[in-house]
Amino acid sequence: MTGFKKTPADSKMISQSIMLDRRQLLLGAAGAATLSVASGFGIRPARAADRTEISFASASFFGKEGLGDLVKAFNESQSRVTVKFIELPPPSSSTEVYQGLVQQLARRNGTPDVFSQDVIWIAGFAAAGWALPLDEYFPKDKRAEYFPGTVAACTYGGKLTALPWFVDSGMFYYRKDLVEKHGGKVPETWADMATIAAEAQKAGDAKFGYLWQGKQAEVLICDAVEIIASNGGSILSADGKSSVIGDDAAVEAIQFLYDTINKTKISPQNVLSWDEEPSRQPFTSGEAMFMRNWSYVYPIAQDPKASHVVDKVAVAPLPHFAGGKSAACLGGYQLGINANSKKREAAIEFLTWMSSPETQTRLALNFGLAPSRPAIFQDAKLKAEQPFMASLQSVFTGATPRPITPQYAKVTLALQSSISKALVSGNVKAELQAAATQINKIVG
Amino acid sequence: MAVTMTVPASERTPGKSRALPSALWPWLLLLPAFISLASVSFYPIFNGLYLSFTNRSLITQDNDFIGIANYVQLLADPPFWNAWWHTIWFTVISTGLETFIGLAMALILCETFAGRGMIRAAMLVPWAMPTVVTSKMFGWLFDGQHGIINFILLHAGLIDQNVNWYGSPDTALTTIILADVWKTTPFMALLLLTGLQTVPKSLVEAARMDGARAWTIFWHIRLPLLMPTLLIAGLFRALDAFRVFDLVYVLTGGGPADSTETLSTLSYKVLFSTLQFGYGSAVSTAMFITEGLIAVVFCIFLVRQIRKTT
């Protein structure tokens, strides 16, 4: 749903693997044996009972190592808590991960104690009472260590119900060589972007000026959130109880997207059926000047086997409207604690460790997942090993959450349908106002 | 066994000495089959029906009986009717085309010619392919930028600029229908071919001797005798087409502007994206009812046909 494509969509089955290393397993077996012998002699068993056992459910992320290795590292780093890892499908099977989590949390039996969640599920889990409010454990000064957009996405009803883990967001890819040729300045407003793109197209330097994703799918909502927010608009009102997508700011923004196809003609009509990959292909084969996409594109663009634009691509924050501020749709997975967990202290300890600067740096270096703590972007090792990721701090600063509502799943379906209709028909105002009426019914 | 053999027949009073009356035995033996069927088939159907009368949602944790409220909402729900019409349109057009082309293919394959066995086997390849593969393939064929269909049409002078097949509401559903026709026509042809082979050769030969032309033989001998097969094949195909999911899900996801949304994709979204099991079950039940109606229409024709021929 958020466009993460780092992991292949291989298995759709929910596999549960218990990640304990062999040493611990042997210890456990020995412990059990001692227990049965010891209890016979009336000796209180030691060792095994000292460690609190909790479970951690997450979509499976992997790079140089997997989440299982991370959990193992935690288990070895201290002697109070043992974490059992419940592996859910990869994030590309987002719907299955969501179902798996909902089914477990709805049982309200405290399993899993800790879980990771896509940003768009946070409000739903919080409203259902499944996520433990974390305010007392992570007071204001601790929250200030994260990107403000991620903290906003982790907050529902004034309470922090999730802890930021790693982020991704929409970003503005551009061709350095073409920008150099046409003015030398990366456009900061949408109007400038359209002008430069049209120039480059006219000069025959690029077949397409600007590529984005207009397929009736979740990614369309991401594109829409970005452009609407960059005009000072939003989809839901501040209290989340009504929709303001029929307002002028939003209408003007979506109108701009419509115009890229029909008026300024800097985007092909095909963007209406494209999601991330189809829009990435023309860009990395050198046919386009600008593109909006996620961070996964960069490594592909730098791979000589897959790309014609090696070393010609760079990334900037997305443009904004005059008077607005650049916005980037927030993606990524965040951490949460099961409200029914009976082992809160242990869960908090694990949660704190998972979101700590050290673990986040490890996630960045070994998994390619970008930190939610701005401070890590200054890390020398990160700069040396992942210079691209280290350059994204300014992009993530503008990260904007999608509508925060427990009814997000319904809201997004209504939005996908209406915005797609607006982009196809050009009746932007009428379609968006119809969307507002529909969303008011859902969230009101 | 040895014991029962030694008991003299005269000592048995039927129905009393035995624990069970003989009429009950067949039922008892059927019971395991019934239980296994009931648990995997009837239970889900009735549970689905029951869910459609509740407001069950995994997210809001509601689970109350609300009577027909879901159905009232459904009847006034534009996305539902939009999807309903698309599904009916898809079913009628794709089944019609598949029957027509399939019949033509069957008639050709019925004749003897060199390499017939090979052709029959090769013909089945599209049908044997997983639908997701077909979907991806058609995605590339009809790609708006690099698709070969655009390339051919452009160079043949039939279009003056690339058509965005999946990005325009005017062409998206038609393109999906084409993909379905390509994929399932062989199945139709195969069913009709078996039907054609049951037409007695003697009838055809007799007609030929009387000087009947090919068209007359087809229209007056083969087609009437093929009718029951044609109806059954059509029924299978229509019910199958009505459930279309993979093609839409892979190619367009229901867009653009809801122009390819079908009942299967809609109910998938309601059930598994928003986790509204109550309302989603109502959508599925409405689908079930519509399929039932389609089946009834076919069966009426079928029964009439069978009465005519017997």
TrEMBL record, chain A:
It comes from the Bacteria. InterPro entries: SBP, TAT_signal. One of its GO terms (cellular component) is ATP-binding cassette (ABC) transporter complex, substrate-binding subunit-containing. Pfam families: SBP_bac_1. PANTHER family: MALTOSE-BINDING PERIPLASMIC PROTEIN, MALTOSE_MALTODEXTRIN-BINDING PERIPLASMIC PROTEIN. GO terms for molecular function: maltose binding. Keywords: Periplasm, Signal, Sugar transport, Transport. One of its GO terms (biological process) is maltose transport. Belongs to the bacterial solute-binding protein 1 family. This is Multiple sugar transport system substrate-binding protein.
Automatic annotation (TrEMBL), chain B:
The chain crosses the membrane at residues 24-46, 88-109, 172-196, 217-239, 277-303. It is found in: Cell membrane. Keywords: Cell membrane, Membrane, Sugar transport, Transmembrane, Transmembrane helix, Transport. One of its GO terms (biological process) is transmembrane transport. It is a multi-pass membrane protein. Pfam families: BPD_transp_1. InterPro entries: MetI-like (IPR000515), MetI-like_sf (IPR035906). Belongs to the binding-protein-dependent transport system permease family. This is Multiple sugar transport system permease protein.
